[in-house]
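thought: fold this chain, then report.
action: predict
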Amino acid sequence: MKKIYFVTALILILAITACVPSKLNLFSDVPDPLKEYTLEGTGKDKILLIAVNGLISDSAKSGLITSSPSLVEQIVTQIRKAQNDKQIKAVLFKINSPGGTITASDLLYHEILLYKEKTGAKIVVSMMDLATSGAYYMSLPADLIMAHPTTITGSVGVITLQPKVAGLMEKIGLGVDVKKYGKYKDMGSPFRESSADEQKYLQKTVNDFGERFISLVKKHRKLTAPAVAEISTARMFLADEALQLGLIDKIGYISDATREAKKIAGIPDDSRLVVYRRAEFPEDNYYNTANATAGALNILAINIDLPEILGLKAGFYYLWPGAMATQ
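observation:
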């Protein structure tokens, strides 16, 4: 038994030393402040690189030991910091996300649009593996959207998730006694099947959210009627298809997106590409997948979490469901 305790303690020590930077306060909930680090360039003007990785949500993500800020909080924190730096002439969003909740996606859309209006800075999006649904939604204020040659984008639509356990409960002899005021108070309950009326009202809600999405695509992308009809099917598109439809402006790599950002911002080639991080990474570059929370305590050397997307709650999403098998 003592040997088991010793091995467990040793694994924890190794995990901590492997995953945590040298400066660490195990008992503080206050993270280190964001600091600016230069990835390339030496000039005065700057392009800020912001990574958008994973499910778009405004809920904090809990780990084994600590919790990390939501993706919305991470991005908005960086946008607000950039707002006070007049040398930042463009923001480059590097997006790898299947989308997320409707409200979180809309919050990012709003914050990016507001930042653009307040500062006059240019916005460029560089899509990586995935930039579908809510991830495309948040990209709409961009002055230029560039997809990687192997990007999957599109999925411009809405999905609602309503788990049902009524059949299982019936099999095992369980029931739920519900008292309610208002005919539709328990609409969407997992404990019974939805009525025809309820299905109709839920579908209307989905349609309203979907029409909002499509209306914003029309507003920002100026698409032809046939393109809008194709996009409204909510199918996903490869980069070359997205370019033909007008969902994106160019196909290229993140280095190409950096050059385009300098060009549309009207700044010199030696302008700096910078990131905000809470810890420094030696030999850092724009392929580093660390986000603004890097440097926070992370005990797990081996990730035993379920895929993020499997933790989805009932609700309405701008999300590509196909990502459930890939995230």
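thought: worth noting. Residues 30-156+234-325 form a domain with the 2-enoyl-CoA Hydratase; Chain A, domain 1 fold (CATH 3.90.226.10).
final: tokens above.
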